[in-house]
Design brief:
Shape: globular
Low-confidence stretches: none
Number of helices: 16
Distance between the termini: 78 Å
Radius of gyration: 24 Å
Largest sheet: 7 strands, mixed
Bound molecules: NADPH dihydro-nicotinamide-adenine-dinucleotide phosphate
Number of strands: 20
Structural class: alpha/beta
Mean pLDDT: 98
Strand content: 15-25%
Oligomer: single chain
Helix content: 25-40%
Length: 486
């Protein structure tokens, strides 16, 4: 597959280029080969994208909501028809195994488009009778929304932002991470094919400066970022200047709590999925696995046994279960966390290095398991964003809740127990935006997704996303004379 796009940006319904922008090399993480060369957006491209979005948004509000829904629904259908091709591109863009991308990326994007297509015509106001006079509300779009994406799920992130934004009547300018510039361009093509007006969904490439220019432009009404907490702080501050709406989907250090009565095989499966899927590059991962003292030995032995069987290799091979990390820089960062964990006294139970035979090609790293991790160790406090699982032990419910909450993050949490009452009690006490009972990391479009504390503001997916992409206008209607004191 030739990964080189027609041009770097997709603006006002067509591909466009401005060779004056800094070069972006898109590297296939499994081989280190440059698979595409693009340019960062110049101020002229940013200007064109925002102006066309502003114009297209006015046009889009002229579409009946049911027609808007139809466009999104057609886009969902096209994504599904092209799943194989889009998945192959996602694999080249990110290095994630085809085994994952075939089911998790365009598929999840299509679900979001289909879901919000169905909601589009139901986004309405309400009427409040006042005994003669009355008030009605209109639920209106915000205007031009800027989406800024991280590199782990380029198709999914673009769809999760575009679907509710467009369903509510907004336009969007999306900036992918410069590490994964390819997939969002395909989505922009698909929206045009599905009947969206030119300029409704634009993609501009660039580094952080392009994101900052978009987020602070007076034409921008809302910014939705998926990224790290430090970037979140900057983007939030930039948006504050113009009192713009924001959605912040940021990082996490989520707990996965396994009680002594848990089904151990299921809990091990969840720990594997919640730490090693996408080579650990998932914001909601349950990287602090709290295991009850009584079952720790059994849990760790099954976890290690099963992790040993993971097939690591070329992500284009459908048998591969674990691909490389996104970049050499990310691998260095993760290896550094592994060294710190060892130095701070954690016990390496499995992995910890580069897999045999894969040192010289790509950005591979072994799935890594540490036992004997304590709360204050760096690996238990900071987001690693790689396949590094930490086992911490506990003996008491109150103790584990307090320790699970003792983090500035609050994205997600999981509980494994057969005691239904305890499951609900613990979940109620956990400071996290998304919780799972007896599973982990499932994020269907029907469920709100987002974090508390430093992990974010606002929610993606579900009906809750409508609140974050629309605003209410309140209209008072007088049915009688206007009384005045003089
Ligand atoms: P970054 O925060 O580094 O970047 C996110 C995006 O913001 C990129 O497109 C980046 O551009 C852009 N950006 C950087 N600086 C600025 C700025 N000053 N103004 C505007 N935009 C800017 O995140 P990563 O791409 O490294 O992704 C990993 C992080 O994302 C992790 O912390 C992870 O937890 C989080 N994440 C959160 C998710 C959630 O839903 N809560 C889901 C997935 C990831 P560029 O790449 O060009 O620098």
């Amino acid at each position: 597959m030739d990964a080189q796009p027609t041009a770097s940006h997709f603006v006002d319904g067509a591909y466009c280029e401005d060779g004056a922008g800094a070069t972006i090399e898109c590297v296939f993480a499994a081989t280190g080969d440059v698979i595409a060369r693009l340019h960062s957006a110049t101020p002229a491209i940013v200007d064109k994208a925002l102006s066309s979005a502003k114009r297209a948004q006015k046009e889009w509000t002229g579409f009946a909501p049911v027609e808007r829904g139809r466009v999104l629904r057609r886009a969902a259908d096209i994504l599904r028809e092209r799943n194989r091709e889009l998945s192959e591109l996602e694999t080249l863009d990110t290095g994630k195994p085809l085994q994952e991308t075939l089911v998790a990326d365009a598929a999840s994007g299509a679900d979001a488009l289909e879901y919000f297509a169905g909601l589009a015509a139901t986004i309405t106001g309400e009427t409040m009778p006042l005994g003669g006079d009355f008030v009605y509300t209109l639920r209106e779009p915000l205007g031009v929304c800027v989406g800024i994406g991280a590199w782990n799920y380029p198709t999914q992130i673009a769809c999760w932002k575009a679907a509710p934004a467009l369903a509510c009547g907004n336009a969007m300018v999306f900036k992918p991470s410069e590490v994964t510039p390819l997939c969002a361009l395909k989505l922009a093509e698909i929206f045009i094919e599905a009947g969206a007006p030119a300029g409704l969904f634009n993609v501009v490439q660039g580094y952080g400066d392009v994101g900052a220019a978009l987020a602070t432009d007076p034409r921008t009404d809302k910014v939705s970022l998926t990224g790290s907490v430090p970037t979140g702080r900057k983007v939030y501050a930039g948006a504050a200047d113009g009192i713009r709406h924001v959605t912040m989907e940021l990082g996490g250090k989520s707990p996965l709590i396994v009680f002594e009565d848990a089904d151990i095989e299921n809990a091990v499966s969840a720990a594997i999925n919640g730490n090693f899927y996408s080579t650990g590059q998932i914001c909601s991962n349950g990287t602090r696995v709290f295991v009850h003292n009584d079952i720790e030995a059994h849990f760790v032995s099954r976890l290690v046994e099963r992790t040993k069987t993971a097939k690591i290799g070329d992500p284009r091979d459908e048998e591969t279960q674990l691909g490389p990390l996104i970049s050499k820089a990310q691998r260095e960062k993760v290896l550094n966390y592994i060294e710190m964990a060892k130095a701070e006294g954690a016990t390496l139970a499995y992995g910890g290095g580069v897999p045999d035979g894969l040192a010289d090609t790509g950005c591979y790293i072994e799935p890594t398991i540490f036992t004997g991790v304590t709360d204050e160790m760096t690996v238990a406090c900071e987001e690693v964003f790689g396949p590094v699982l930490s086992i911490l032990t506990f003996s008491d419910e109150c103790e584990v809740i307090a320790r699970a909450n003792d983090t500035p993050f609050g994205l997600a949490a999981g509980v494994f127990t057969r005691d239904l009452t305890r499951a609900h009690r613990v979940v109620a006490a956990l400071e996290a935006g998304t919780c799972w009972i007896n599973t982990y990391n499932l994020t269907p479009v029907e469920a709100p997704f987002g974090g508390v504390k430093l992990s974010g503001v606002g929610r993606e997916n579900s009906k809750a996303a409508i609140e974050h992409y629309s605003q209410i206008k309140s209209v008072y209607v007088a049915m009688g004379d206007v009384e005045a004191p003089y």
